[in-house]
Amino acid sequence: MPAFLLYLVHTLFPPDTRQPTELGADFMILVTGIGIVFILTRYQKWRWLWREWLTTVDHKRIAIMYLIAAIAMLFRGGVDALMLRTNLALPNVRPIGALEYNEVFTTHGTIMIFFMAMPFIFALFNAVIPLQIGSRDVAFPRLNAMSYWLFAFGAILFNISFVIGGSPNAGWTGYPPLTEVAFNPGPGESYYFLSLLIAGIGTTITGINFLVTIIRMRAPGMTLMRMPMFVWSVLTTSALIIFAFPPLTVALALSLLDRTFGSSFFTLGHGGMPMMYVNLFWLFGHPEVYIVILPAFGIFSEVVPTFSKKRLFGYTTMVISLVSIMFLAYGTWVHHFFTMGAGPTVNAFFGLSTMLIAIPTGVKIFNWIFTMWGGRIRITVAMLYQMAFIPTFVVGGATGIMLSVVPADYQLHNSYWVVAHFHNVLIGGTVFGLLSGLYYWWPKMFGFILNERQGKVAFWLFVIGFWVTFLPQYLLGLEGMTRRMYTYPFGFGWHELNLISTLGAFIMGAGFLALVYNIVWSLRYGERDLTGDPWNGRTLEWSLPSPAPEYNFARIPVVHGVDEFWAMKESGDTLANHLRPQDVKTLELPKNTGMPFMLGLSFFVGGFGMTFLWWPIAIFGGLGVVACLLYAAFDYNDKKHLPADVIRHTERSWGRLQA
Amino acid sequence: MSTPAVSEPRQPIPVEFADEEESIKITGFWMFLVTDMIIFASLFAVYAVYRSRTALGPTPQQLFHLGPTVLETLLLLTSSFTIGIAVWAMRSNRPRLVLGWLIATMALGAGFVITEISDFVAYTSHGATWHVSGFLSGFYVLVGTHGAHVTFGIMWAITLLLQLRRRGLTPITRRKLFTFSLYWHFLDIVWIFIFTFVYLSGKIA
Description:
The structure holds two protein chains of two kinds. Chain A contains 21 helices and two strands. By secondary structure, chain A is an all-alpha fold. Chain A has two domains: 44 residues; 565 residues, Cytochrome C Oxidase, Chain A, CATH 1.20.210.10. In chain A, strands 1-2 form a two-stranded antiparallel sheet. Chain A is globular, with a radius of gyration of 25 Å. Chain B is mainly α. The chains are: A mainly alpha, B mainly alpha. Chains A and B meet through helix 7, helix 8, helix 9 and helix 20 of A and helix 1 and helix 5 of B.
């Protein structure tokens, strides 16, 4: 074999990627890839894929692409979690070794936060926000597609690290000096920094896009205090993204400069300071946990009134609590490293600011309970997740308050108590919320209802599995088990609890499979949503057919109050009642474009080149980015016309047009 | 939905905001500037922490020459003035004047970048590379990020120039020129902070 090929094989597939798990993954990827290519070619779907999906700028399609990515990443992160739990099931029994364990928990954390939770919330942003505010699209449809492709190619770059070159292994937080090239040579950490930088640009753009959409594109009459609560939650989330992601970008970029170009930011010598990274990271990282929880709060604030057949209790206090959480989010980041030794004054300040967050959160919990109080509750899957959320999140919040007590944190820091706490709020809060939103808005996104009976099976597996997994972990934390340990000896009294926890993880895995089965089954046999309003909803998205047409609203509605669609139904009115043929005008819609896809691809190529320090490839990717930006700057032909006749025809076929 | 009564006196809207869609893009650009501002805020925070961490390298006082930085300040502040005139010319609908002042802005910006590069080359030729100390890393990345922004701005101005020549002043090119001017003023403000906080206070301390 020529020397060049040998070098290539050795760099791309170093010995530690030639283990059974990796080879198995290689094989699966190969088989799946060939299968997809075969099906697309067999049924001549390449053109369809490119025209209808890869170049789309329609927020409803982008939402679906985000959702597919999120569920795929939930699978990958979940498999990682099962590998971790299997390793810890019994003392001294360790199918995977310490080094690989480090890689797996790093991948698990990074994927679940950045490549599962984030796209999942963006899927719901995209699917719901323009419909709820009565708009035809987001403010910047092309940027929206760019966000998606930057996220997607960032995710691909991160995911291939497992099979090509080696995974990152310094935890999802990537603390130096462990990420410095002296202690961590090889491409793993470079993959981490580059993929998060690329995906982070996309996320920042999404934040800008939805903030401007909500500020500038609401239907006439929809004042701020008439917005659905989910819109409020997205507004505050977007503001959090705009202020939180730049520090992450800086932290990642400086680490990359240290690794790749020899600067001295976080090195141990040369006047570097690793704690600076930790501060910058959590300056992002703490707002980030609110970025993923506030949308869940918004979802519950939609689900509870709908299924309680009652107006949301305490609208104004809900808004105030959302906004105060948004501001408080920036003042708590040091509680992630009380043990840094910043001194009692600093620690006391951040301990107190952390405790303050409990007040607005508690207000929200009470408001949801009071909304249900005296309502006509329907126990649907969406509602079940909400009802499971309340006790779960209260426990997760209470253990968080215990961690904010600085002396207690010195004991609990980096123990399984912390692991149990953040899974308690991230799964009990974010994931329950997202799944609730998934069942709630699924008919609007896809035009059919997910089978409720199967959904309930998945729900019970998931919730029971969750408690069985994480309740023992609190006790393990109290018994001194630290996080990120890959095995433990006999005789510490940890083995029963660990075994129970692993059992729970597999029950959750079964819950995931039940969810997938539910989706696949309903795809074929699920009840079609012909009315567009399967849940007797209260907000504007339910006034449209499911799924909504490309232009959303044939005529933009005028809003008179909170729960506009409910008020319409109360007075026996619909949007269609007033739509006469002459009201329908020819619309200008954004035209599909391949630029966002090519931009993401260029970033991917550039990132891959930088990971392996192959400069020609990196420069080639960079030139691709420049070419895409130039194309976007000079492309004035970005609109298409949708003739009024076509819209009239579509509306008439639904019976939504007056004769 | 309500249209204002005809008799109601209204503030005239600047021409770049007249088109609703383009005006939304200006709002979006302000939000982008917020994110860029936070990037610089983070880099300033990094520099503030690192500026005493000079390791075996030079201190700010030993390193900085005020001559080139004063020149840079003059060039960039003047360019902020010239882009202001370009926007004024756009509002009074004089496309040739817009082109002229945009070219002046680019020339001043290029002068700034060249001065900064020669300044950096002088520092590194004395062995003050960013590998040497945390202070130098923080310095080069903070000031270099600003310089990279100015360089990107010049490229952007070139594409703007071509579009203005081909299309004249349309709602789209007006909005693009206006957002460019926002970006340019923003870089000017950041530079004022760099000049005082990095160079002047570094020289005094």
